C-alpha cells in the first residue's frame, strides 16, 4: 500500500502542494539590500517544476497547483 503525504496550502481558494520551503534570507544575495533575488527564486521554481511561490509564516514556499479532478456525473 502506498502512503501519499503532501504538504498542502490553500491560497485564494486554490490548493497548492508545497514542494520546498526556504528561509527568505536564502534569496537575499546582496547583503547591502533586503530585497530577495527574484531571478534566483525563478530558477528554483523552474528546477522544481513548480508554478507558484507563496510567502507564509516567514517562509518562502515553492509550490505546484493541485489540479481539480474532473468529475463525470453517473446516473
Explain what you see.
The chain is α+β, with helices and mostly antiparallel strands and 75 residues long. It has one domain (10-65). 13% of the residues lie in helices and 33% in strands. It is built from one helix and four strands, in the order E-E-H-E-E. The chain has a four-stranded antiparallel beta sheet with strand order 1-2-4-3, with helices on one face. Strand 1 (8-11) and strand 2 form a beta hairpin. The longest helix is centred in the middle third of the chain and has 10 residues, at 38-47. The protein is elongated. The two termini are 31 Å apart. The mean pLDDT is 91.
List the helices and strands and how they pair.
Blueprint: E1 8-11, E2 14-22, H1 38-47, E3 52-56, E4 59-65
Antiparallel strand pairs: 1-2, 2-4, 3-4
Amino acid at each position: 500500500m502506498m502512503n501519499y503525504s503532501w504538504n498542502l496550502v490553500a491560497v485564494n481558494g486554490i490548493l497548492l502542494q508545497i514542494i520546498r520551503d526556504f528561509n527568505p534570507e536564502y534569496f537575499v544575495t546582496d547583503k547591502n539590500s533586503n530585497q530577495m533575488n527574484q531571478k534566483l527564486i525563478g530558477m528554483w521554481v523552474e528546477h522544481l517544476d513548480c508554478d507558484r511561490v507563496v510567502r507564509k509564516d516567514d517562509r518562502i514556499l515553492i509550490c505546484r497547483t493541485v489540479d481539480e479532478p474532473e468529475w463525470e456525473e453517473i446516473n
